[in-house]
Amino acid sequence: MKILNKNSELCVGCRICELSCAFNKSNKFTPAKSRVWVMRDEEQGVFDPMICRHCVRPPCEKACPVEGEKPISRDGKTGIVWLIPERGCIGCYECVRACPFGAIRIDPEDGNVFKCDLCNGNPECVRWCPTGAIQFLERSTIGGKHR
Amino acid sequence: MYGYGGKILRINLSTGKIEKENLKRNWIKNFIGGRGINSKILYEEVGPEIRPLDPENRLIFGTGALTGTGLLTSGRYTITARSPLTGFFGDSNAGGHFAPELKWAGYDHLVFRGKAEKPVYVWINDDEVELRDATHLWGKSTWETDRIIKQEVGDPRIHISCIGPAGENLVRYASVVCDLASVQGKCGMGAVMGSKNLKAVAARGTKGFEVADPKGFKELAYLLLEKTKKNQAYAVFSDFGTGTLAPFANEAGLLPVRNAQQSGEFRGIEEITKEALKEKYFTKNMACFGCPIHCKHHFVVKEGPFAGERGPGIEFGVLGPQGPYCDNVYAPSILKIQNICNQMGICGMTTGLVIGAAMEWYQRGIITEEDTEGIRLEWGNYEAQIEMLWKIIKREGLGDILAEGASLAAKKIGKGAEKYISHCKGVDIDCIDPRPLKGYSLGDAVSTRGADNLRGSFVFEAFGMTPEVAQERFGTEDSVKPDSYTGKAVPLQYYQRVCTIADALGVCKFATEWWGLEITLKAMSDLFSAATGIEMDENEMIKAADRIYNLERAFQVRDGITRKDDMYEGRFMEEPVANGPAKGKRLDKKKWEEMLDEYYAVAGWDKKTGSPTRERLQVLGLDFIIKDLEKRGKLK
Fold this sequence. Notes:
heterodimer, B: Aldehyde Ferredoxin Oxidoreductase Protein, subunit A, domain 2, six-stranded mixed beta sheet, 25 helices
């Protein structure tokens, strides 16, 4: 089960990840459609890619008030946390508020929410990141260098 | 409209009127965008009778067709206006993250005219554009302004292009700053902005834009990204940016020391090498929008009088002038000075060159401690350097004179001061001694904004290109002989075209073939066609580049610039290199004229006057310029 990992020390704040994601998903160049975003502080020299963790126990799924099959839920087999608004999403933004990483995004055009779906196993942001700050790794290897 | 935002935003600061004009397709076909369309607007709307600080001067922001795509250095924008420093055509280009917001909001260009009654800033939020009171921001640094406006708008992720106190005080080389350290420094665009009481432009764009051939565009951009990462020059620039050039220039005798009284052999070179700066100060690589080269570096000064100083830095353009040029060996002071310049909104390069000139005047007794009000402008005295920098920013005492630029200051001071400076058309030289490089000097002389290597100097004149390749590409091995006055015109024109197109597209010139990186003229044509759906091959791109360049030259000609202005004034034209590895190299006046003849022939400029010929303008379809110059008696 591979998910995204990030190493902020390698992030240079270029935002190529944002634009490549947005372009891939919406055919438009605008970070407003990007699933990933970079927190940037030039004065302090801090850059941090805000990726979806595809959490094992996702707060977004827990927060969603829709009864029965939720529009946001984790697939037990693949580990991917899917957000499919057509499955009864009411646009209450409880998931947005619940995510500690800001990974659920709101489309300014129509108010719908959207999030990372790992691009069918070939994440676009990983493909384009020039420094390897965002990686696509087996869960069991995350944080490996610290262990 | 593919690839563009589609609109020109026109704001009259005198009346408060805000208008949105459609970007015309035939403007794009002829002038591409960015610097190209900026120059066209300036030509048409700012004649010689409108002076730089007049309200009627236009301040034009221009993004390019590729700006905002996030793919390969596409974050740049050009600001164009009649320059307060020179009185002539002026522009400056910067990166950072501001320009894409304009583009995503739907605006390819902003055109300001008039002057606001009280300080204002512009807040652009997609379709909503408003003028807001900036009285509370007037006097604040660009860093504070950035912080405060983000708070006011309630969004830390907007981007802001603004001036600091230097622009407010109309220092003639005041800058415009975005994202703390991405700066339009040359030509004093910050002073034009200050003269309009315009403190800042803040923008957020979410609308975005589409391209004509998404698949093709993406494939090409990805290929260029992969190639760039494997490129040799990438390895150098990504590691340390243009600061890498300092030790190299020093060894070759091209690094001006003490106002170019010395060239190379800088006593403090070990303090400003990549190794020294990385080890002691740099913490992290930083990138402008969409750039894999990330040539900026975050630094922190840990000890000494400037402990705690931090921020993005530093490029050769500031390192040279504030370091060796003033014989300053104390690196933390250079970093501090860079921060002051970025915060106060003043060109870090020009300031170093001006203070260096003042230091030589002080050395020679042309100015005294009385003139400097006690500031001892001695070589290497970085405290004095900083004190004088503040005087310039505030226009106090001698600072008020130095704020006029080296050329005007020298005239005011008299007593032979003019002998010790060098400029072309009022713009100080960049940060290398050009005398050993004849082709480089030519580039400065025929640049359309005064002395400037960014108009497309022939970088490989002295290194990196074999005689065989030069022969094949430019017709003669002379091109790569620095001492040769012949064979320089063709390569110069080639790289002028590369740089002009990069500026028109909004990509960083340092990612192009100008420095041997991967974005070639062909790649730029292909990217442009894929983005816009307007098919332009390399030859048509070249023609557009020539059209833009000749329009800018015509602007200069209309102002009265002639052949006799296509040279350096002062030291670089009159004296040989005094010492160092390039000792004795000089610019021979007779051979200079021959070199100029060769360039004029290649460029299609009149041998006597230096003006683009009627035929040249006709071939480029610049009929409106022919009529205008004729009317003014400037065209035979």
